[in-house]
Amino acid sequence: MQLNRTRFVQVIAATILVAIFAAPQSMAQSHVVSSADLQKEIVSATQTRQQNIDTLTNALSGSKAEKALKAAQVDPTQVKTAVSSLSDAELAQLAARASHAQNDFAAGRISDRDLLIILVGVAVLILIIVAVH
After folding, report:
1. What does the pLDDT look like over 22-35, one tens digit per residue?
2. Domain check: are 13 and 69 in the same one?
3. Number of folded domains in the chain?
């Protein structure tokens, strides 16, 4: 009788352990993101980051912008190098500001001088962010 009770307890314990270890694995399988989806997200994030880098680099690459940076005693090469070390959020925010300023300039809402002041401000902000990191 004692042997049957011990065997019964062992079987129940084994069943409970199997249920505990099997259940989370089966639930985890239903929430796993496929590698194709991860790859798409990585590619999308990389493309967005590169577009933001290109936006800032193009905004700071004009001859007038480079002259304004040099007049403000800011090295344009250092600023362009620092752009790639910004976080994704900082990069997106500064790229949006630079793009907005260029669109306003193209639409005639701001003058050439104002655009250059904004670009110098963005460049100085880039250097400050990089220096803080």
Report:
1. 665 545 555 567 78
2. no
3. 2
Q: Does this model's pTM top 0.85?
A: no
The full 3-state SS of 18-86, as one line of letters, equals HHHHHHHHHHHHHCCCCHHHHHHHHHHHHHHHHHHHHHHHHHHHCHHHHHHHHHCCCCHHHHHHHHCCC
Same domain, yes or no: 20 and 45: no
Residue range of the domain that includes 8: 1-31
In Å, what is the CA distance from 85 to each residue of 95, 101, 109? 14, 22, 31
Closest CA to 59 of 125, 15, 9: 125
| Percent of the chain with pLDDT strictly greater than 90 | 9
52 with 116, same domain: the answer is yes
Instruction: Give dist(CA 103, CA 123) in Å, integer.
Output: 18
